[in-house]
Write a structure and sequence with these properties.
Largest sheet of chain A: 5 strands, parallel
Structural class of chain B: alpha/beta
Number of strands of chain A: 9
Order of helices and strands of chain B: HEHEHEHHEHEHEEEHEEHEHEHH
Strand content of chain B: 15-25%
Largest interface: A-B, 33 and 29 residues
CATH architecture of the largest domain in chain B: 3-Layer(aba) Sandwich
Number of helices of chain A: 11
Distance between the termini of chain A: 22 Å
CATH topology of the largest domain in chain B: Rossmann fold
CATH topology of chain A: Rossmann fold
CATH class of chain A: Alpha Beta
Helix content of chain A: 40-55%
Number of strands of chain B: 12
Radius of gyration of chain A: 17 Å
CATH architecture of chain A: 3-Layer(aba) Sandwich
Largest sheet of chain B: 7 strands, mixed
Number of domains of chain A: 1
Number of domains of chain B: 2
Shape of chain B: globular
CATH superfamily of chain A: Thiamin diphosphate (ThDP)-binding fold, Pyr/PP domains
Radius of gyration of chain B: 19 Å
Distance between the termini of chain B: 34 Å
CATH class of the largest domain in chain B: Alpha Beta
Helix content of chain B: 25-40%
Oligomer: heterodimer
């Protein structure tokens, strides 16, 4: 991987994290853990993989992203703002009355959000429908599907995986954010998912398992999904929930956090300091 | 609109008409796409889908996924129509329809076959008396309870290009002939099948035939019953509800559904504020379904012309 590109994408990931904290600072609370764990993947996706035009968010030929773990909306919003889909200042309206940035991703409210999600599991089938549609339309696009490890508790995820494989959706890229935690605690204690990499592989996905907070590893894994083929791709992102902010990483419960403005600010400044 | 009701049954089966209409509409519109959850053989689409694998998608026995896939296709500009049995097309996929289709504004048509007692030998597990109630709570959804073959063809055609969530409940066997072939039944307005001044019978689906039979019987006792076909349960034709409330003063609602949440509820909600009529209902009395032939089940759950006659007579007093 080109060093300049790597540096640029690492910076984008940091900027996404800053954008996440900006949103939560403005509102006082939010789904911080799962937004921070997926920041690196979003930086690589929007920074080097996806074809899009911020002036035409509904451009048919764009690549599409379905964030099925819809509560990671703030991370997606930060990425979209950095790509000029809407002004950066809008980030400060997260979850305010009448906002275009609700807690969970909403295609009808936010320019650049490709699919409405929030009821866990449903984004997986929606992404399959999008991918099938792309193929029927004869487009050379990719559909990226972000699913949380906790989300795989939902049976619909596995219905969709079976469908993707059976219908040979080689334009679908599943990114499994395995951050090891869900709302009530550790995934292994609540409903152990066991080896998700082996599972998606058994479902017929072309699967790799990587450090999901390593820009180069994510980039390399995504580059090879440009080839298409007749198998859907799965990239198991082994991540840390709350990645990038030590106190959030260490917090026992970090799915959604409500802390003081001063606290958000302290975390924010620690990230901003890393920009130089 | 030509009415041809004489009490005789159509020899054509709904299930064949569903298959024929889907293949016809698909030939007319390249965006029309059909999905099923391993029940293609039940609606005569199996052969066609095998020959047209890009237009007929078998999702296997995974209804939730099927709804999501249809919605993803809708987001890509397709006009999906999905089919499964009524209980799976409603309560099993309610969250998927509510959010992935309704809330997310992905427009799809859902066909739920074997509504209510028409599920016959599949029995109580497959007998939805609650599907209308569920769909009524989805904002701006369209709900159709099909009466006969020409109506089925007409509403399938209309639903293709109608925005929002559209739910069509229809049997798979045959039904009494009501409308002449080629009749268009625009979604929305109720259709008066017979005028009367003493009591108005509001009916949908298989209960339209029972209502017409009941009106004949009532006439013999000197009671003039109007029969109004409320095949569009949502959006309800509230003007017609109010008109007959004034005109007849007595209303009997007849539906192949639980009395809770269906057409009867919709009529009562319409009239609650300024009611001018007495209203009673011939419907399932808050029970689960059971197995049996349709004539047995209609008697068992009180869904016959005789039940309508009794209810109407008692109401008029």
């Amino acid at each position: 991987m080109d060093t300049t590109l790597k540096k640029r994408l690492e910076r984008t990931a940091l900027e996404i994290r800053i954008g996440v904290l900006e949103q939560m600072k403005a509102r006082g609370f939010g789904h911080v853990g799962g937004s921070l764990s997926i920041a690196d993947a979003l930086a690589v996706l929007y920074g080097s993989q996806m074809r899009f035009d911020p002036k035409r968010p509904d451009w048919a030929e764009r690549d599409k992203l379905v964030c099925s773990k819809g509560h990671a909306g703030p991370a997606v919003y930060a990425a979209l703002a950095l790509c000029d889909f809407f002004p950066y200042e809008v980030l400060k309206t997260l979850n305010q009355p009448g906002t275009s940035l609700p807690s969970h991703c909403d295609h009808n409210k936010t320019p650049g959000v490709d699919m409405t999600t929030g009821s866990l599991g449903q984004g997986t089938s929606l992404a399959c429908g999008l991918a099938l549609g792309e193929r029927l339309r004869g487009r050379d696009t990719r559909v990226f599907l972000i699913v949380g490890d906790g989300e795989t508790n939902e049976g619909q995820v596995w219905e969709a995986c079976m469908f993707a494989s059976a219908k040979k959706l080689g334009n679908l890229v599943l990114l499994l954010d395995v951050n090891g935690k869900q709302l009530d605690g550790c995934t292994k204690d609540i409903l152990d998912t066991l080896d998700l990499s082996a599972k998606v592989k058994a479902f017929g996905f072309d699967t790799v398992s990587i450090d999901g907070n390593d820009i180069e590893a994510v980039y390399t894994a995504l580059e090879r999904t440009r080839n298409g083929g007749d198998k859907p791709y799965a990239i198991v992102l082994n991540t840390v929930k709350g990645k990038g902010v030590a106190a959030v990483e260490q917090a026992k419960s970090n799915h959604s956090m409500a802390v003081s403005t001063d606290q958000w600010n302290e975390w924010l400044l620690s990230l901003i300091a890393q920009l130089d | 609109m030509e009415l041809i009701y004489d009490g005789s049954m159509d020899s054509r089966l709904f299930k064949d008409i569903i298959g024929q209409t889907i293949s016809k509409l698909s030939a007319q519109d390249p965006d029309y796409i059909y999905l099923d959850a391993d029940l293609m053989s039940c609606v005569g689409t199996c052969q066609w889908a095998t020959e047209n694998p890009e237009r007929g998608i078998n999702c296997g026995i995974s209804e939730a996924n099927m709804i999501g896939v249809a919605c993803g296709l809708a987001a890509n500009g397709f006009k999906p129509v999905v089919h499964t049995f009524g209980p799976f097309a409603s309560r099993r996929v309610f969250d998927q329809v509510f959010l992935s289709a309704g809330y997310a504004k992905n427009d799809i048509t859902i066909i739920g076959t074997d509504p209510g007692v028409t599920a016959t030998f599949n029995g109580g597990t497959h007998m939805p008396f609650e599907d209308i109630a569920l769909y009524r709570t989805i904002p701006t959804a369209t709900i159709i309870d099909v009466t006969d073959v020409p109506m089925l063809i007409s509403v399938l055609k209309q639903c293709k290009d109608l925005p929002g969530v559209k739910y069509i409940r229809v049997g798979r066997k045959n039904a009494a002939k009501v409308f002449a072939d080629g009749t268009e039944t625009p979604i929305g307005p109720a259709i008066t099948l017979r005028e009367g001044k003493d009591v108005a019978i509001f009916a949908s689906g298989i209960m339209v035939h029972e209502a017409m039979q009941a009106a004949n019987k009532l006439a013999k006792s000197g009671i003039e019953a109007a029969v109004v076909n409320f095949f569009t349960i949502k959006p309800l034709d509230t003007d017609t509800v109010k008109k007959y409330a004034k005109q007849c003063k007595n209303i009997v609602v007849a539906e192949n559904h639980n009395r809770i949440g269906g057409l009867y509820s919709a009529v009562c909600e319409t009239l609650a504020r300024e009611n001018t009529a007495r209203i009673d209902v011939v419907a399932v009395n808050d029970e689960y379904g059971e197995v049996g032939p349709q004539d047995y089940l209609q008697k068992r759950f009180g869904l016959t012309a005789e039940h309508i006659v009794e209810t109407a007579t008692a109401l008029i007093g």
